[in-house]
Please model this.
Amino acid sequence: MFKKLQTYFQSLGISFSRPDSHCNKAAADGAVSYFIDHPVSSCVSCFACGTECNVPFNPFDMEHRAR
Model:
């Protein structure tokens, strides 16, 4: 994994390195592998559901005038 990342970042002109000794970095490795292997996707509704909330003011409607 390190070699692939190093090659990728060097092609972008970014310096990429790691410590000489192996340290406890399971969380960091897990985060990087999750980022690479699990792209985020989202679903957005094409229609709005609910009640209409942009009602024009009607000066002749007593309920509108009370507000």
